[in-house]
């Protein structure tokens, strides 16, 4: 059995708000193995970004991990000193955010921003750092890399800026990259180019990636496995092909039905009625119960245990718990 790069066990995260403490993530457990691309999918507010922030130790000030373990190669990050975690964060785990301009320093040339990572985490000479930076810029598809090295972020297009952010994330050869909706801020053609770049990275670099998206089309093209999140919980997970061809959770079914090419021509675009409950609106039971057309009485009372469907495919839904229907 392979050792996972990252393994999260039973993690709960809560926010301290003015009128009390509210759970935002509950019982999050999953692993990422070497060379694997794991997607996290779910509507806005389901906890995708919070999960990645918890992994990197960059949660908002009013949020905390209450319970659980986040292990990087068998070391619990939550027990590490901040300095050690910071070292891992820069070199072994790195992050690509939605908006390239928020990740880049407007006052530094892009070449310098990439080579700074090498300066911090390696003993390479200045000349080698520059050479490596230029070759990384070429690898991420920036053809005039020598010229671009001395450019400032505002002199580049959005797609080029995101390529620089990807180069920064890759230059220290991390074991795991977390990409949080890395194409959302870009226009459609550039999105396709950046996705193609991720596909190539997966093929040639063999870096593990957590790819956060609300877009199944993107998940289907990039990921090996997918976690479906709803209201702070992972409600279904499995291989992408298995989940897309055989979704079990009514929420996953609804999301897949909303993919435009899953609909017949001329049909109105399907959307799941209702919305994700806010932290304060979440009650006991299954948080999807209010929106679920297959709801059983027990769904409002109790959150279901995980049920193994086939291989790595698991679902948390009362419909698949043995005896759930009979006991009602
Ligand atoms: N700083 C904060 N203070 C209070 N609640 C927050 C804060 N940040 C996030 N939340 C809440 O935590 C929950 C999860 O948010 P998160 O940003 O992880 O969702 P998401 O699935 O990444 O959504 P999106 O696709 O919009 O980025 C949401 O209910 C959100 O309102």
UniProtKB/TrEMBL annotation:
Pfam families: ABC_tran, oligo_HPY. GO terms for cellular component: plasma membrane. GO terms for biological process: peptide transport. Residues 8-256 form the ABC transporter domain. It is found in: Cell membrane. Keywords: ATP-binding, Cell membrane, Membrane, Nucleotide-binding, Transport. InterPro entries: AAA+_ATPase (IPR003593), ABC_Ni/Peptide_Import (IPR050388), ABC_transporter-like_ATP-bd (IPR003439), ABC_transporter-like_CS (IPR017871), Oligopep_ABC_C (IPR013563), P-loop_NTPase (IPR027417). It is a peripheral membrane protein. CDD domains: ABC_NikE_OppD_transporters. It comes from the Bacteria. One of its GO terms (molecular function) is ATP binding. Belongs to the ABC transporter superfamily. This is ABC transporter ATP-binding protein.
